[in-house]
Fold this protein.
Amino acid sequence: MEHILEYVNNLTHLNAICFLLKPNESKLNIYYRLCITQLFSVLDRNNVKNIIFCFTNSRSTFYTPGDTAPLLKKMLNSLSIGNVSFKKENTFCFDSESFRYLVALKNEIQFSDLDKEEYVMSWIKSVTDSNRLIQYICEKLTDCRI
């Protein structure tokens, strides 16, 4: 966290504040809370409007925030950093299994047609949300002054 804060302090603005999480967390420990609190100790409270939540490894939860969502909502509501939006609009889900698949193909590992189909669908879903993320940052957010 110290490195992030040092880096952010050298910037003039932020386009977005992205929190990367796994969708299948059964509990959010004190570390998550501490990170968010520390980050907003150096950022203006108005910057909460530029928070984005990105969930990795989300295929196992059908490309949703999974069990992490209610825990995250509860934690965000308990913090005194302002009204942090946690909605579909600023939440994005990805999975990297299609990249692992491409590496495996390059190494001549064989897959069934069904497996190939699933990897293609994973790629399509991840690309779709990646594009939605970029579009959201470009069209919906304004730069945050630091």
